[in-house]
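Researcher: Sequence recovery benchmark, item below. Answer with residues only.
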């Protein structure tokens, strides 16, 4: 099983902002700990991965669609 790190807050304000945006849209933002360190949007109810991106900008773009 892949280890995932929950991101609710962070030293970089952007992480907190994107995480809050994801929560408002029904997702949970996590950082995958694989070598690519992709950002993942998980369903709040069942933790199913619904979208992933290499950057927070990619996550933000998806959330804004």
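Model:
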């Amino acid at each position: 099983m892949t280890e995932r790190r929950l991101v609710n807050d962070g030293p970089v304000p952007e992480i907190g902002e994107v995480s809050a945006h994801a929560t408002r849209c029904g997702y949970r933002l996590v950082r995958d700990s694989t070598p690519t360190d992709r950002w993942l949007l998980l369903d709040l109810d069942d933790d199913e991965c619904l979208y992933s991106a290499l950057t927070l900008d990619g996550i933000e773009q998806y959330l804004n669609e």
